[in-house]
Amino acid sequence: MTFNTKAPEEKCNPSTPELCRLGDLWNRLGTLSIAGAKKDSLMRSRKMFIDRNLPLVGHNNILGKSLVIYDDFGPKARGERLACSR
């Protein structure tokens, strides 16, 4: 008999969002595709995400929290952060 030793958050993906940690948008919603040119922006960069596990009210609300978007292919001078917001 084999046992699955993965923690629930390691099984997190868009088809099983209930196993994701709060705030783990990458695994729950997938990666962002950001256009490199204005002519491609409507086709690539305009998306709406709905996440019912991200509360806007209550003790664990996300209002006032930071959002960081990472870029794996960013220049060394900038680092891997593409954008930050608060």
Structural notes for this entry:
This protein has 86 residues and is mostly loops. It has one domain. 10% of the residues lie in helices and 10% in strands. It is built from 2 helices and 2 strands; from the N terminus they run H-H-E-E. A two-stranded antiparallel ribbon has the order 1-2. The longest helix is centred in the N-terminal third of the chain and has 5 residues. The chain is globular.
SSE blueprint:
Layout: H1 25-29, H2 41-44, E1 67-70, E2 81-85
Antiparallel strand pairs: 1-2
Provide the number of structural domains: 1
Categorize the overall geometry.
globular
Q: What is the ordering of alpha helices and beta strands?
A: HHEE
Q: Tell me the number of helical segments per DSSP (H or I, 4 or more residues long).
A: 2
What percent of residues are in strands?
Answer: 5-15%
Q: For the CA atoms, what is the radius of gyration? A: 16 Å
What tags apply to this protein structure?
86 residues; little secondary structure; two-stranded antiparallel ribbon; 2 helices
